[in-house]
């Protein structure tokens, strides 16, 4: 298959337009979706005369990967905007998440996109909860890509409204499926986020924070997201301080070891206290020493990280 893909790529590069019909045939009938995508890309590379037809065809293929590839190319076709935009809107309403994401990004990338009247209905759908959470990050990227300050303000106001004052909810789009491989690279290599400086993974990494090689088993995706973007909202057991105000009036401050159903275990100096919840009037968590990642990484990177972290399950 690699060979087939390489030869299709070469045809594209060489601009062998006499092969355009052959490539279109591959797009229609090859059993492999990767070969189909390669055939489509070769047609793009040679600006084939049948490119618009090929892209329209690809967008209706049985394989989602081919449809998404076709969709991503629509900006490059000679179709006028007044045909592209309705097509994208239709996809946004009816298709799979991956297609909806690509449709939004494509819409934002079209010339003159800041003046499309369609944004009004898209933002209205967003407001009414008709756009799945998994498209929020693409919606934001698309709105920013239009370069319109007005659209950006509208989007941000709606997002604030949806989040209802909870920081992490502004990142809810990051709960959708991300790219695990890219998330892994961020975890081990991102110089800004520096996860591995503070966290252990297997036998490497630091110990300022808890080891993370089993974190996909202990935390849900939502808790992972909260840990990343609003770290002081919940603290990993053994890694943060808490102050308990007791019903009796006195205060206890120590390292929170465990938050159980009916009690809390807190270490004060070298002594471990177990305090029943009915004796506790209120609690205040100390600040996490982990930096909130929303300022260091893009939302898309955070989505990839959450997806990666949720795969970390030690097999015992
Ligand atoms: C400066 C040190 C530091 C850096 C850098 C850091 N963390 Fe943390 N992290 C901590 C500390 C300390 C805690 C424990 C307190 C808390 O829960 O916020 C923690 C908690 C967590 C938790 C919750 C663990 C649990 O068991 O509840 C996750 C998940 C996490 N970090 C992931 C990451 C990822 C992913 C990165 C990189 C993007 C990162 N951290 C970067 C210090 C750090």
Describe this entry's structure for a reader.
The chain is of the alpha+beta class. It has 15 helices and seven strands. Strands 6-5-4-3-7 form a five-stranded antiparallel β-sheet, with no helix packed on it. The protein has a two-stranded antiparallel ribbon with strand order 1-2. The relative contact order is 0.08. Heme C binds next to helix 12, helix 14 and helix 15.
Total beta strand runs: 7
Structural class, by secondary structure, is alpha+beta
Oligomer: single chain
Spell the H/E element sequence: HHHHHHHHHHHHEEHHEEEEEH
Structural shape: elongated
* Number of helical stretches of at least 4 residues: 15
Tell me roughly what share of residues is in helical segments: 40-55%
C-alpha Rg (nearest Å): 25 Å
Mean pLDDT: 92
In the predicted model, the low-confidence regions spanning at least 5 consecutive residues are none
Order of adjacent strands in the largest pleated sheet: 6-5-4-3-7
Beta-strand portion reads: 5-15%
Query: What's the story with the biggest beta sheet?
Result: 5 strands, antiparallel
Ligand catalogue:
heme C
Distance between the termini: 37 Å
List the helices and strands and how they pair.
Layout: H1 2-13, H2 20-29, H3 33-45, H4 51-58, H5 64-73, H6 81-94, H7 97-109, H8 118-127, H9 136-146, H10 149-163, H11 180-189, H12 195-198, E1 200-201, E2 204-205, H13 215-218, H14 221-229, E3 241-246, E4 251-259, E5 263-268, E6 271-276, E7 280-285, H15 299-309
The chain binds heme C.
